[in-house]
Task: inverse folding
């Protein structure tokens, strides 16, 4: 399973490195969202700093949606999806590979966005290691849920509009937990590290559920799709 995951993730990441879609489209989109939020709330800089954690994760969530759509668009042409099903690769390995490739792209994006939040929203990072833990857990949940629902929507004509309707509501708990936990790191509220730990544990629970469900269900979902 893990060998197949490495093969699939390597394939997706090599395609992205050559096409530069993440660099030329997803990254500019994410920074544009941050800048638009900054312009929209510029009249109240204090409010902008207060909601910085939420805006950061909303931006990551929207960027994750683009990354998931791109991940399944790779197999949309030339019957590549059928070839993937007939390749003999383990379904759980395919899931872990595609989710891992999405997660790797999102983690790089989050590093750059965190720097953008510090500059644009005038906030200070209190704990880089704590923020890294939050990012890893939240990214695992986003990538896992996105990959599962990407497989569900992949074979449908309305996949571009259906995927957001499936993807975004399911990730509301991850968005809430990540935003509340990140408030302690960004120092935008009175939330302390001790207050943030229950949100981190909740984030870990949901991310574990999404990953476990994907490992079990992705193979049959891919066959049905």
Result:
């Amino acid at each position: 399973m893990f060998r197949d995951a490495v093969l699939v993730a390597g394939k997706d990441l090599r395609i992205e490195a050559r096409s530069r879609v993440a660099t030329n489209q997803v990254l500019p989109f994410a920074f544009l969202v941050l800048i638009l939020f900054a312009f929209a709330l510029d009249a109240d800089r204090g409010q902008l700093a207060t909601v910085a954690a939420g805006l950061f994760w909303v931006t990551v969530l929207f960027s994750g949606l683009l990354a998931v759509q791109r991940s399944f668009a790779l197999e949309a042409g030339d019957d590549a999806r059928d070839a993937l099903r007939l390749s003999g690769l383990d379904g759980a390995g395919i899931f872990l590979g595609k989710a891992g490739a999405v997660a790797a792209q999102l983690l790089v994006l989050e590093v750059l966005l965190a720097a953008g939040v510090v500059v644009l929203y005038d906030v200070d990072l209190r704990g880089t290691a704590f923020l890294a833990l939050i990012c890893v857990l939240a990214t695992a949940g986003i990538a896992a849920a996105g990959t599962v629902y990407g497989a569900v929507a992949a074979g449908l004509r309305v996949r571009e509009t259906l995927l957001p309707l499936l993807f975004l509501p399911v990730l509301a708990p991850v968005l809430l937990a990540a935003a509340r936990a990140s408030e302690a790191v960004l120092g935008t509220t009175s939330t302390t590290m001790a207050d943030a730990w229950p949100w981190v544990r909740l984030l870990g629970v949901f991310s574990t559920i999404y990953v476990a469900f994907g490992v079990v269900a992705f193979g049959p979902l891919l066959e049905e799709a």
Q: What stands out?
A: The mean pLDDT is 83. The chain is about 85% helix and 0% strand. The radius of gyration is 18 Å. The first helix runs from residue 2 to 19.
